[in-house]
Design goal:
Layout (H helix, E strand, L loop, with lengths): L1 E2 L33 E5 L4 E3 L7 E7 L2 E6 L5 E7 L4 E2 L10 E4 L3 E7 L7 H30 L3 H15 L2 E2 L2 E3 L4 H8 L3 H13 L3 E3 L4 E4 L2 H7 L3
Length: 230
C-alpha cells in the first residue's frame, strides 16, 4: 500500500544511501521550483506498473527496489536492483515497459518528465542530470551483461556477491542482502536451488560465510574474484 505521509505499517530496516558507492550517486535535489512528490512504499508495493503512462521519472531516496517483468512462460525476470541515488522511469515510448517494486520500505522522489523542457535553467540542470544518469545506467547495464555472460552458476553467483559488495552499505566485509534468494535467482537467470547450492559451495570452500539473516561475509576476496572468473 502506498503511504505518502503516514508511518510504515511494517517497520523494517531501510537502506540508507550506500556508503562507499562511487562519487555522484547520492540523491541530488532538483532545481528550486520543480514540481516534485515524495512518496513512500511498503515492502512488496508496486511503485510503477508495466503499461502505465510514462509521465514521470523517479529517484530512489532510501530503501531498495527491483525492476521486473513476467515472461510469457510465467517466469519472472529481474532487470535491476535500484538503490538510493538510482533513477528509473525513462522510456522510449509513452508507457512503462517493466514493473518497479519495493523490496524493502522505499522512499522515492517523483518528478514530471516535462521538467526537461521549459526554462533555460531547467534545460541546463536537466542536461547535467541526464549526463550522470546516462553514464551510471550504462555502467550498471554493462556490468549485468558481463555477469550474465559468465557460463557457470558459480561465476554468476560470485560476481553477484562482488557487485553487491560494491553497491550496498556494509560493515567491513559483511554484506547485508535485503533481497530474497528468489530475487537473486531471478536476477541471475538461475533457479533458487542453484543459487543456494552455489553459495553453500563457496561457504565450504572458505570463500564466504552465510548467516541466517541472509548476510554474507567475504572471507577470501581473491578466491571470490577467481570464482567469478575475474
Amino acid at each position: 500500500m502506498l503511504a505518502t505521509t503516514t508511518p510504515m505499517s511494517r517497520p523494517m530496516a531501510v537502506l540508507p544511501p550506500a556508503a562507499g558507492r562511487s562519487a555522484g550517486t547520492a540523491p541530488t535535489p532538483p532545481a528550486p521550483g520543480v514540481p516534485r512528490s515524495s512518496l513512500s512504499f511498503d515492502r512488496g508495493a508496486t511503485i510503477v506498473r508495466e503499461g502505465s503512462p510514462a509521465t514521470h521519472w523517479y529517484e530512489v531516496v532510501s530503501g531498495l527496489a527491483r525492476t521486473c517483468k513476467l515472461l510469457a512462460d510465467g517466469r519472472r525476470s529481474i532487470g535491476e536492483f535500484l538503490l538510493p541515488g538510482d533513477v528509473f522511469g525513462f522510456e522510449l515510448g509513452t508507457a512503462h515497459t517493466v514493473d518497479v517494486e519495493a523490496i524493502s520500505p522505499t522512499s522515492v522522489v517523483r518528478l514530471p518528465l516535462t521538467w526537461f523542457g521549459g526554462s533555460q535553467d531547467n534545460i541546463q540542470s536537466a542536461a547535467a542530470r541526464l549526463h550522470r544518469v546516462a553514464f551510471e545506467t550504462v555502467a550498471r547495464n554493462n556490468g549485468r551483461l558481463l555477469l550474465l555472460a559468465r557460463q557457470t552458476a558459480q561465476e554468476r553467483v560470485a560476481g553477484f556477491v562482488l557487485e553487491m559488495d560494491r553497491r550496498l552499505p556494509r560493515k567491513g566485509s559483511r554484506i547485508e542482502l535485503p533481497m530474497t534468494r528468489q530475487d537473486v535467482a531471478d536476477y541471475l537467470c538461475l533457479t533458487i536451488e542453484t543459487v543456494c547450492r552455489t553459495l553453500s559451495d563457496l561457504r565450504r570452500a572458505g570463500i564466504v560465510a552465510v548467516d541466517a539473516q541472509h548476510a554474507i561475509l567475504i572471507r577470501d576476496r581473491t578466491g571470490l574474484e577467481a570464482a567469478a572468473g575475474l
